Write the structure tokens for this entry.
Amino acid sequence: MKRNRHWTGIFAALIMLVLILDSKTAISSAKAGVGICLATVIPSLFPFIILSGLITSAFVGNPLKILKPVGRICRIPAGGESLLLIGLIGGYPVGGQCIYRAYRDGQLSKQDAERMLGFCNNAGPAFIFGITAALFDSSAAGWIIWGIQILSAVVVGILLPGYTGGRCTLAAANKQSISGSMEYSVKTMGIICSWIVSAKILIGFLDKWILYPLPIDLAIAIEGLVELSNGCLRLAEISEESIRFTLASTLLSAGGLCVWLQIFSVTGELGKRTYMIGKCLQTVICIGMSAIMSQILYPGENHIHGVIPGLILIFMLAIFIVFKKVVALRKKVLYNV
């Protein structure tokens, strides 16, 4: 463990050295990140997060008969159907938090919890309608993107293996007051804004050193895979609505590196492999669904954007492989020590 801490310290020192050597880029990027939070993210997301908190506390642990058929299709342990609903309306990383809480309290087996992480944790309506829907002239685009997220999550639930056939008895959540939901929303916004500012600094260095010669849509796609909010907010720079639609839907399903790290930080000892497989699979499904819907919504536009989601998929697979290698190396270091 001491060796592992040493490597973490060395890595942090190298990052600090980069920030010192090019402090101008770091400061300007951080200012841009704070500006994004104050001008767009907080006004767009804050009201939705408050309402999502109230909805979450109302439904967790309550039997929902309307979801039982979907629960059987997705092979969710009986009694745990509300976790799917929370994963669809709560947004990242609320679904993961609720699943881990159920596992920690002994209400869900580890295998079922790890499997459900793969499809019960998605972009919620707060982000989709607060930020993404504003990118399109038609209000229907936001609803269609949300529908694609829901349908792709259900398909992943059908396809993912590992169902144990067990049951789940969720304890009802404590009823949350408006003031309690407000407090939760302030904390959540603080975490979101911290990730956005940190990722904006990383993106600033990527733009300066790596991404500047790339086509604008590909550069934005890569930025979205680093941090979802930064990428989605830059989609407005793409003139073709069909490309914007496909990229928005694809990035929302993928989540991106920062979302993955948030999920890993709130799911404790649960394995991450099934989550990563589920998100990669959902991204593939969303690419197909989004390409079809963009042909219907924007028939007169040039649909050359199939290449970009393909590159996103390759990038996600690379992230998956790197994470797998890092986790394996970390276990090896800890075991040897």
User: Anything to note?
Assistant: Residues 23-59 form the longest helix (37 residues). DSSP finds 15 helices and no strands in the chain. The chain has one domain: 28-336.
